[in-house]
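Run log, item B.
One chain of 347 residues. Sequence copied directly from the ordering sheet:
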Amino acid sequence: MNQFYDEPFTSGHSHVFLGAGHEKNERKTWAVIALCSAMMIAEIAGGSLFGSLALVADGLHMSTHAGAMLIAAMAYTYARQHANDNRFVFGTGKLGDLAGFTSAIILAFIALLIGYEAVLRFMSPVAIHFNQAIPIAVVGLGVNVASAWLLSGGEHHGHSHGHGHAHAHPHPLVSQPRAGYTQVASAGNTLRVATSAHTHVDTAHGMDARDHNLRAAYVHVIADAAVSVLAIVGLLLARAFGWLWMDPLAGLVGALVIANWAYGLLRDTGAILLDVAPAGPLKQQLRRAVSGAGDQLLDLHVWRLGPGHYGAVLSVRSSLAEHSAAFYHARLAALKGLSHLTVEVLP
Protein backbone atom coordinates (compact mmCIF):
# COMPACT_ATOMS: atom_id res chain seq x y z
CA MET A 1 0.00 0.00 0.00
CA ASN A 2 1.41 3.41 -0.99
CA GLN A 3 2.12 5.93 1.73
CA PHE A 4 2.24 9.65 1.06
CA TYR A 5 3.99 12.51 2.81
CA ASP A 6 1.28 15.13 3.36
CA GLU A 7 3.45 18.14 4.20
CA PRO A 8 3.93 20.89 1.61
CA PHE A 9 7.12 20.55 -0.40
CA THR A 10 9.26 23.70 -0.36
CA SER A 11 12.19 23.82 -2.73
CA GLY A 12 14.13 26.53 -0.88
CA HIS A 13 14.87 28.48 -4.06
CA SER A 14 13.19 31.01 -6.30
CA HIS A 15 10.98 30.17 -9.26
CA VAL A 16 11.07 33.68 -10.71
CA PHE A 17 11.27 33.35 -14.49
CA LEU A 18 10.40 36.88 -15.60
CA GLY A 19 12.12 38.55 -18.54
CA ALA A 20 15.25 40.61 -18.02
CA GLY A 21 13.43 43.85 -18.91
CA HIS A 22 10.14 43.08 -17.13
CA GLU A 23 9.88 46.19 -14.94
CA LYS A 24 11.18 48.48 -17.69
CA ASN A 25 8.61 47.12 -20.14
CA GLU A 26 5.89 47.50 -17.50
CA ARG A 27 6.71 51.19 -17.13
CA LYS A 28 6.70 51.66 -20.91
CA THR A 29 3.26 50.10 -21.23
CA TRP A 30 1.75 52.28 -18.49
CA ALA A 31 3.27 55.35 -20.21
CA VAL A 32 1.53 54.41 -23.48
CA ILE A 33 -1.76 53.97 -21.60
CA ALA A 34 -1.36 57.49 -20.15
CA LEU A 35 -0.69 58.93 -23.62
CA CYS A 36 -3.66 57.14 -25.22
CA SER A 37 -5.97 58.10 -22.34
CA ALA A 38 -4.99 61.78 -22.61
CA MET A 39 -5.60 61.71 -26.36
CA MET A 40 -8.91 59.91 -25.86
CA ILE A 41 -10.16 62.53 -23.36
CA ALA A 42 -9.01 65.42 -25.59
CA GLU A 43 -10.73 64.01 -28.69
CA ILE A 44 -14.01 63.18 -26.97
CA ALA A 45 -14.12 66.52 -25.17
CA GLY A 46 -13.14 68.46 -28.30
CA GLY A 47 -15.62 66.58 -30.47
CA SER A 48 -18.42 67.21 -27.98
CA LEU A 49 -17.60 70.92 -27.71
CA PHE A 50 -17.23 71.54 -31.45
CA GLY A 51 -19.89 69.13 -32.68
CA SER A 52 -17.48 66.80 -34.51
CA LEU A 53 -18.83 63.26 -34.61
CA ALA A 54 -15.64 62.06 -36.36
CA LEU A 55 -13.51 63.38 -33.50
CA VAL A 56 -15.71 61.66 -30.91
CA ALA A 57 -15.55 58.43 -32.91
CA ASP A 58 -11.74 58.55 -33.03
CA GLY A 59 -11.67 59.22 -29.29
CA LEU A 60 -13.78 56.12 -28.68
CA HIS A 61 -11.44 54.18 -30.98
CA MET A 62 -8.51 55.41 -28.85
CA SER A 63 -10.29 54.04 -25.76
CA THR A 64 -10.20 50.52 -27.24
CA HIS A 65 -6.51 51.08 -27.95
CA ALA A 66 -5.90 52.03 -24.30
CA GLY A 67 -7.95 49.01 -23.18
CA ALA A 68 -5.73 46.66 -25.19
CA MET A 69 -2.65 48.23 -23.60
CA LEU A 70 -4.26 47.77 -20.18
CA ILE A 71 -4.23 43.99 -20.65
CA ALA A 72 -0.46 44.09 -21.18
CA ALA A 73 0.17 46.46 -18.27
CA MET A 74 -1.94 44.47 -15.80
CA ALA A 75 -0.21 41.25 -16.86
CA TYR A 76 3.18 42.83 -16.12
CA THR A 77 2.03 44.10 -12.73
CA TYR A 78 0.35 40.86 -11.68
CA ALA A 79 3.31 38.72 -12.79
CA ARG A 80 5.73 40.91 -10.83
CA GLN A 81 3.60 41.06 -7.69
CA HIS A 82 3.05 37.27 -7.66
CA ALA A 83 6.47 36.22 -8.90
CA ASN A 84 7.23 34.50 -5.58
CA ASP A 85 3.76 33.03 -5.05
CA ASN A 86 4.31 29.27 -4.60
CA ARG A 87 0.84 28.54 -6.00
CA PHE A 88 2.44 29.05 -9.42
CA VAL A 89 4.50 25.88 -9.80
CA PHE A 90 6.86 27.37 -12.37
CA GLY A 91 6.38 31.05 -11.55
CA THR A 92 4.49 33.72 -13.47
CA GLY A 93 6.85 34.01 -16.44
CA LYS A 94 4.22 32.78 -18.91
CA LEU A 95 1.58 35.31 -17.87
CA GLY A 96 2.92 37.69 -20.50
CA ASP A 97 2.40 34.99 -23.14
CA LEU A 98 -1.20 34.58 -21.95
CA ALA A 99 -1.73 38.34 -22.23
CA GLY A 100 -0.15 38.29 -25.68
CA PHE A 101 -2.48 35.47 -26.75
CA THR A 102 -5.48 37.48 -25.50
CA SER A 103 -4.30 40.60 -27.33
CA ALA A 104 -3.86 38.57 -30.51
CA ILE A 105 -7.50 37.48 -30.31
CA ILE A 106 -8.55 41.12 -29.90
CA LEU A 107 -6.40 42.08 -32.91
CA ALA A 108 -8.06 39.33 -34.97
CA PHE A 109 -11.53 40.67 -34.10
CA ILE A 110 -10.42 44.22 -34.96
CA ALA A 111 -9.23 42.96 -38.36
CA LEU A 112 -12.59 41.27 -38.93
CA LEU A 113 -14.51 44.42 -38.00
CA ILE A 114 -12.39 46.63 -40.27
CA GLY A 115 -12.73 44.13 -43.11
CA TYR A 116 -16.49 43.91 -42.63
CA GLU A 117 -16.84 47.70 -42.64
CA ALA A 118 -14.64 47.94 -45.75
CA VAL A 119 -16.85 45.46 -47.64
CA LEU A 120 -19.96 47.42 -46.65
CA ARG A 121 -18.32 50.64 -47.90
CA PHE A 122 -17.53 48.97 -51.23
CA MET A 123 -21.17 47.97 -51.67
CA SER A 124 -22.67 51.18 -50.30
CA PRO A 125 -20.24 54.14 -50.56
CA VAL A 126 -20.80 56.94 -48.07
CA ALA A 127 -19.87 60.62 -48.21
CA ILE A 128 -16.50 61.39 -46.63
CA HIS A 129 -15.82 64.66 -44.76
CA PHE A 130 -12.20 65.00 -45.89
CA ASN A 131 -11.43 68.21 -43.96
CA GLN A 132 -12.22 66.43 -40.69
CA ALA A 133 -11.13 62.88 -41.45
CA ILE A 134 -7.61 63.62 -42.74
CA PRO A 135 -6.42 65.73 -39.74
CA ILE A 136 -7.83 63.13 -37.32
CA ALA A 137 -5.97 60.35 -39.15
CA VAL A 138 -2.75 62.41 -38.99
CA VAL A 139 -3.18 63.04 -35.25
CA GLY A 140 -3.90 59.34 -34.71
CA LEU A 141 -0.75 58.44 -36.63
CA GLY A 142 1.28 60.82 -34.46
CA VAL A 143 -0.03 59.21 -31.27
CA ASN A 144 0.76 55.74 -32.59
CA VAL A 145 4.29 56.73 -33.62
CA ALA A 146 4.85 58.20 -30.14
CA SER A 147 3.46 55.01 -28.57
CA ALA A 148 5.71 52.83 -30.74
CA TRP A 149 8.71 54.94 -29.71
CA LEU A 150 7.81 54.50 -26.03
CA LEU A 151 7.54 50.72 -26.49
CA SER A 152 10.70 50.43 -28.58
CA GLY A 153 14.02 49.17 -27.30
CA GLY A 154 14.31 45.74 -28.88
CA GLU A 155 12.92 43.62 -26.03
CA HIS A 156 10.05 42.35 -28.19
CA HIS A 157 12.60 41.08 -30.71
CA GLY A 158 14.21 38.97 -28.04
CA HIS A 159 17.76 39.20 -26.75
CA SER A 160 18.57 39.18 -23.08
CA HIS A 161 21.73 39.28 -21.01
CA GLY A 162 22.43 37.70 -17.69
CA HIS A 163 24.71 35.49 -15.68
CA GLY A 164 24.39 31.95 -14.48
CA HIS A 165 24.60 30.14 -11.17
CA ALA A 166 23.45 26.73 -10.09
CA HIS A 167 22.53 24.84 -6.96
CA ALA A 168 21.05 21.43 -6.36
CA HIS A 169 18.78 19.76 -3.84
CA PRO A 170 17.23 16.29 -3.48
CA HIS A 171 13.95 15.75 -5.24
CA PRO A 172 11.55 13.44 -3.36
CA LEU A 173 9.31 11.22 -5.43
CA VAL A 174 6.40 9.82 -3.45
CA SER A 175 5.34 6.18 -4.05
CA GLN A 176 6.78 2.66 -3.94
CA PRO A 177 10.56 2.25 -4.25
CA ARG A 178 12.25 0.55 -7.15
CA ALA A 179 15.80 -0.17 -8.24
CA GLY A 180 17.98 2.93 -8.12
CA TYR A 181 16.06 4.55 -5.26
CA THR A 182 16.67 4.52 -1.52
CA GLN A 183 14.22 4.51 1.36
CA VAL A 184 13.99 7.52 3.64
CA ALA A 185 11.80 7.89 6.71
CA SER A 186 10.12 11.26 7.25
CA ALA A 187 7.23 12.13 9.61
CA GLY A 188 6.31 8.48 9.90
CA ASN A 189 5.86 8.07 6.14
CA THR A 190 7.99 6.33 3.57
CA LEU A 191 9.49 8.35 0.75
CA ARG A 192 11.72 7.22 -2.06
CA VAL A 193 14.42 9.63 -3.14
CA ALA A 194 15.79 9.34 -6.64
CA THR A 195 19.31 10.18 -7.66
CA SER A 196 17.95 13.46 -8.95
CA ALA A 197 18.12 17.17 -8.30
CA HIS A 198 17.12 20.58 -9.60
CA THR A 199 19.44 23.21 -11.02
CA HIS A 200 18.55 26.86 -11.48
CA VAL A 201 20.54 29.01 -13.83
CA ASP A 202 19.71 32.70 -14.17
CA THR A 203 18.75 33.59 -17.71
CA ALA A 204 21.64 34.05 -20.12
CA HIS A 205 21.73 35.26 -23.66
CA GLY A 206 21.09 32.92 -26.52
CA MET A 207 17.64 31.36 -26.25
CA ASP A 208 14.35 32.92 -27.34
CA ALA A 209 13.92 35.77 -24.86
CA ARG A 210 11.12 37.56 -26.70
CA ASP A 211 8.63 39.28 -24.42
CA HIS A 212 5.37 38.42 -26.19
CA ASN A 213 3.41 40.74 -23.90
CA LEU A 214 5.44 43.73 -25.07
CA ARG A 215 5.34 42.35 -28.60
CA ALA A 216 1.52 42.29 -28.47
CA ALA A 217 1.39 45.89 -27.23
CA TYR A 218 3.84 46.91 -29.95
CA VAL A 219 1.82 45.12 -32.64
CA HIS A 220 -1.31 46.99 -31.46
CA VAL A 221 0.27 50.41 -31.97
CA ILE A 222 2.08 49.45 -35.19
CA ALA A 223 -1.14 47.98 -36.61
CA ASP A 224 -3.00 51.15 -35.72
CA ALA A 225 -0.21 53.24 -37.28
CA ALA A 226 -0.34 51.16 -40.47
CA VAL A 227 -4.10 51.63 -40.69
CA SER A 228 -3.64 55.38 -40.15
CA VAL A 229 -1.06 55.58 -42.98
CA LEU A 230 -3.33 53.62 -45.32
CA ALA A 231 -6.29 55.78 -44.33
CA ILE A 232 -4.38 59.01 -45.01
CA VAL A 233 -3.22 57.76 -48.42
CA GLY A 234 -6.72 56.53 -49.30
CA LEU A 235 -8.35 59.78 -48.20
CA LEU A 236 -5.88 61.95 -50.09
CA LEU A 237 -6.37 59.95 -53.29
CA ALA A 238 -10.13 59.93 -52.83
CA ARG A 239 -10.19 63.71 -52.38
CA ALA A 240 -7.78 64.39 -55.26
CA PHE A 241 -9.29 62.08 -57.88
CA GLY A 242 -12.75 61.33 -56.53
CA TRP A 243 -11.85 57.66 -55.96
CA LEU A 244 -14.14 56.99 -53.02
CA TRP A 245 -13.33 53.28 -53.32
CA MET A 246 -9.75 54.01 -52.20
CA ASP A 247 -10.92 54.55 -48.60
CA PRO A 248 -12.49 51.07 -48.14
CA LEU A 249 -9.62 49.50 -50.14
CA ALA A 250 -7.12 51.01 -47.70
CA GLY A 251 -9.22 49.64 -44.83
CA LEU A 252 -9.29 46.17 -46.37
CA VAL A 253 -5.52 46.12 -46.86
CA GLY A 254 -5.09 47.26 -43.26
CA ALA A 255 -7.38 44.48 -42.05
CA LEU A 256 -5.31 41.88 -43.90
CA VAL A 257 -2.07 43.24 -42.40
CA ILE A 258 -3.51 43.18 -38.87
CA ALA A 259 -4.89 39.66 -39.38
CA ASN A 260 -1.46 38.44 -40.47
CA TRP A 261 0.21 39.93 -37.38
CA ALA A 262 -2.51 38.52 -35.14
CA TYR A 263 -2.01 35.06 -36.61
CA GLY A 264 1.74 35.16 -35.97
CA LEU A 265 1.19 36.28 -32.37
CA LEU A 266 -1.48 33.60 -31.79
CA ARG A 267 0.78 30.91 -33.23
CA ASP A 268 3.82 31.84 -31.12
CA THR A 269 2.05 32.47 -27.81
CA GLY A 270 -0.29 29.47 -28.23
CA ALA A 271 2.70 27.17 -28.70
CA ILE A 272 4.26 28.47 -25.47
CA LEU A 273 1.02 28.11 -23.49
CA LEU A 274 0.71 24.50 -24.70
CA ASP A 275 4.36 23.77 -23.79
CA VAL A 276 5.36 22.96 -27.35
CA ALA A 277 9.05 22.00 -27.39
CA PRO A 278 11.16 24.99 -28.48
CA ALA A 279 12.78 24.91 -31.90
CA GLY A 280 16.13 26.25 -30.65
CA PRO A 281 19.36 24.34 -30.05
CA LEU A 282 18.76 23.52 -26.37
CA LYS A 283 17.18 20.11 -26.91
CA GLN A 284 20.01 18.93 -29.16
CA GLN A 285 22.59 20.29 -26.72
CA LEU A 286 21.04 18.23 -23.93
CA ARG A 287 21.01 15.09 -26.08
CA ARG A 288 24.65 15.57 -27.03
CA ALA A 289 25.62 16.14 -23.39
CA VAL A 290 24.16 12.76 -22.39
CA SER A 291 25.44 10.77 -25.38
CA GLY A 292 28.84 12.44 -25.06
CA ALA A 293 29.09 11.09 -21.52
CA GLY A 294 28.44 7.57 -22.83
CA ASP A 295 25.01 7.27 -21.20
CA GLN A 296 21.51 6.52 -22.54
CA LEU A 297 18.84 9.24 -22.63
CA LEU A 298 15.53 7.62 -21.66
CA ASP A 299 13.28 10.68 -21.59
CA LEU A 300 13.62 14.41 -22.29
CA HIS A 301 11.17 17.31 -21.96
CA VAL A 302 12.04 20.95 -22.68
CA TRP A 303 9.64 23.89 -22.42
CA ARG A 304 9.67 27.66 -22.01
CA LEU A 305 9.10 29.10 -18.52
CA GLY A 306 9.32 32.78 -19.42
CA PRO A 307 11.27 35.18 -21.65
CA GLY A 308 14.81 33.76 -21.84
CA HIS A 309 14.03 30.97 -19.34
CA TYR A 310 13.65 27.28 -20.18
CA GLY A 311 12.98 24.20 -18.08
CA ALA A 312 14.10 20.64 -18.80
CA VAL A 313 13.47 17.18 -17.33
CA LEU A 314 15.95 14.39 -18.17
CA SER A 315 15.88 10.70 -17.38
CA VAL A 316 19.26 9.04 -17.95
CA ARG A 317 20.47 5.44 -17.67
CA SER A 318 24.13 5.09 -16.69
CA SER A 319 26.41 2.19 -15.76
CA LEU A 320 28.94 4.54 -14.16
CA ALA A 321 28.52 5.27 -10.47
CA GLU A 322 30.17 8.70 -10.80
CA HIS A 323 27.52 9.79 -13.32
CA SER A 324 25.11 10.99 -10.64
CA ALA A 325 22.59 13.82 -10.90
CA ALA A 326 25.27 16.17 -9.57
CA PHE A 327 27.54 15.12 -12.46
CA TYR A 328 24.91 16.16 -15.00
CA HIS A 329 24.09 19.38 -13.19
CA ALA A 330 27.75 20.35 -13.38
CA ARG A 331 27.91 19.24 -17.03
CA LEU A 332 24.80 21.20 -18.07
CA ALA A 333 25.15 24.29 -15.86
CA ALA A 334 26.72 26.36 -18.65
CA LEU A 335 23.87 25.86 -21.15
CA LYS A 336 22.43 29.25 -22.04
CA GLY A 337 18.81 29.83 -21.10
CA LEU A 338 18.43 26.66 -19.03
CA SER A 339 16.90 28.03 -15.84
CA HIS A 340 15.29 24.94 -14.26
CA LEU A 341 16.67 21.42 -14.61
CA THR A 342 15.49 18.14 -13.10
CA VAL A 343 17.69 15.09 -13.66
CA GLU A 344 16.90 11.46 -12.88
CA VAL A 345 19.77 8.94 -13.15
CA LEU A 346 18.94 5.22 -13.19
CA PRO A 347 21.59 2.48 -12.96
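Observations after the first pass:
- The helical segments are 22-50, 53-81, 95-123, 130-151, 212-241, 246-273, 282-292, 325-332.
- The chain has eight helices and six strands.
Flagged for discussion on Thursday.
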